[in-house]
# Entry
Amino acid sequence: MLDCAGMADVTQLLEAWRGGDTSALDRLIPLVYDDLRRLARNMVRGQFGTPARGTTLVHDLYLRLAGQTHPEIQSRVHFFAVSSRAMRQILVDGARRMQAQRRGGGAVETLEDNVEAADSRGSMDLLDLNEALDRLAQLYPRRAQIIELRYFGGLSAEETAEVLSVSTETVRREMRMGEAWLGELLGPTG
# Structure
């Protein structure tokens, strides 16, 4: 994790990037790279992919972020929330590509695609979870945001409360309700 000086540097670079300095992202990534890798490893752990996929996920995230010129990122915590959402979308897009390939939608193109194709059950679980989160977001948007920030973003209850401008107790309560709703929808096999 970053020390106080590192957090100040991150805040300054985020402000510069938001102000249109596209080179600020190139200076920012080395400061947060270890934290992004940890976040990515948590996201791809177990059923969502292989450990090697974490590094690829961070690199894919960088490419996605590099395309933004005036991001609306307000703080370090918000940056990690936005990054986690983007990583989730990258994983979902990859799972959808694998599903299309299994249905005859095209040949496997890269070694990374071959690794992903070998984990077909994980991709189905991710797609099911993504669909369930999208349904939850339609009914209870804040609950879906909280679950996304906590599970995919790796944010604490306090950090999630900061991002959403609500109390920590609200985060905990909405998290429990959202988890229960998802549990009912996904069933015991998830």
